[in-house]
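My current task is to audit a protein record that another person submitted. I need someone to confirm that the token line plausibly describes how this chain folds. Take the sequence as given and treat only the tokens as open to question. This is what I was given:
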Amino acid sequence: MNSKTIQYGIGDNSYVAAGALQGLTKLVDSFYDFMETLPEASKIRNMHKSDLTESRTKLVYFLSGWLGGPRLYAEHFGRIIIPAAHKHLSIGFDERDAWIFCMQKAVALQPYEDAFKAYLIEQLKVPAERIRMASEAYQTNP
């Protein structure tokens, strides 16, 4: 793909740039591998079940629809509002940044174009910040 002609965020361009379902699975596997091994991610790792199989599947399915591909999350698990689904967790700036850090490391390993890597991380920062804000609001006024 030539990043000069591809407009990410339109149609399924981002989904295709991510390698479709196979590429997203590789990304998510790398992401959770980093989450399990990086000391900076230990707090967010501990927010998950010991078996990450379902978390991996849910993230792949969410990213599929979020990036313009098949809406697999809704098909398999129903509708989700990401900030609301995470509001009960104590997610502050450090947890948000640890999540993004793991994702940056995972994205760096993928065979994506540099322009898509940068685009993807910037886009992922939006829901990460919304989750932090929803958690903060919930912790303040449950």
User: Anything to note?
Assistant: The domain at 19-52+80-140 is CATH 1.10.490.10 (Globin-like). Helices lie at 13-17, 20-37, 42-45, 53-66, 72-77, 82-86, 93-109, 114-140.
